[in-house]
């Protein structure tokens, strides 16, 4: 009893000194996640559809995978998440709305050093000529557009069983050989880092949009658009917050959001829009039913880590990880997960050259193990003399982020068994709607287009 009293006293004292806030709000749509698709949905719902919204965002910023390291001396942005936006109507309109000027992507062209990061040795690799690559990409584009009708904007009519086009279920290797697309593979792999050894054609379809033009903001800081969105949305975003309790019903949704520093917001919403990976929804908090649990846990995929690193031994150029099997124009040979894709030279910061490091890891790998892969790759390069000798423990991680599971995959059997329509059938149940990468692909602009299609349907009866 005495102990309990002390505990109560202590809690009371904490409450007295902590500056936390408790409030309740009524809104039309509560959005979980303010990343690529959540921030976009929030802006469109409030500004174009005239709805009241609230965004619950775990981090202290909007933008999700769009991330930059800012040079502390010059302020220059070095993007290590999203690198460019596909040029489609949804993306040009979103940038125009915020008056963010755009330019063609500026991917610093530097020479590339090819090496096998498993042993550090250089590999005598020649990438396809740009003529070969362009021609192969043209053939990929032709194939890609065959499936637009099935996949866009939400793949809600995606078939099952034998109605799925056979070619879409081939492995990427089989598909690339069948349509003479091998020379397009290095471009796809370098751009989106999808695991081409594990991917079916449908996975590559979702990962790589064969765009003719993309763009970046003229500032070179891909986060600019999300900073502008954050200014506009103001207090309609609850930062550093997560939902800790939820009750979902056909009549609407009640949520309790709690911030890191203890602020609680009781939310009464007509609709819930989940933009985060649904496999990360806590089953207890959201009272997920068996079908929701089964669908959300049905995918496999790799976990992606990216960061900005520097080390005195790294030359001011790209260092790419290629396997020896890739020699002699074998464009379908890639490293096996887990691996570091390369040290992608991003230019010179105030402290010297910096590199984007992308680690493709098993879904359960933790950040420390992912960093170890970056260090051991560099150590191998130094030990074999591919780059000057040194100590990889001096690798400076200026930034390093967990991007979660990307390029979620379903097996051929799951697809034939109708998993895509089971997923889509969850839209709207108990006032809950979904957007985000799980539901389409890993392309920010394409997801905006997908979100554009979901919003009016979600709003139909409110
Ligand atoms: C390294 C990398 C590079 C990429 N490069 C490009 C590119 O060049 N061009 C391109 O078009 N696409 C690119 N993509 C893909 C693109 O970023 C994604 O398709 C897009 O960001 C997906 O948007 P999303 O809303 O699904 O997820 P995210 O952008 O990841 O947003 C999810 C948001 O939810 C928040 N969140 C997570 N959990 C919770 C929780 N429990 N509660 C509250 N909030 C939560 C996160 O903090 C985040 O803000 C890249 C992705 C990565 C990882
Ligand atoms: C919590 O509320 C306090 C008081 O209003 C505020 O200063 C603080 O920024 C809030 N925290 C978050 C994460 O919003
Ligand atoms: C955007 O979605 C529409 C359907 O809403 C679709 O017809 C169109 O092809 C999509 N655009 C792109 C570039 O994917
Ligand atoms: C985007 O595409 C349109 C044509 O569809 C073109 O006019 C515009 O210049 C492109 N923008 C960039 C930055 O490439
Ligand atoms: C970066 O610095 C190196 C020397 O460390 C120099 O050779 C190189 O030209 C610089 N690159 C850029 C893009 O400024």
From TrEMBL:
InterPro entries in the cross-refs: FAD/NAD-bd_sf
Cited SUPFAM superfamilies: FAD/NAD(P)-binding domain
The keyword Signal is annotated on this UniProt entry: yes
Residues making up the signal peptide according to the UniProt record: 1-16
Pfam families associated with the record: NAD_binding_8
Keywords: Signal
Protein name: Amine oxidase domain-containing protein
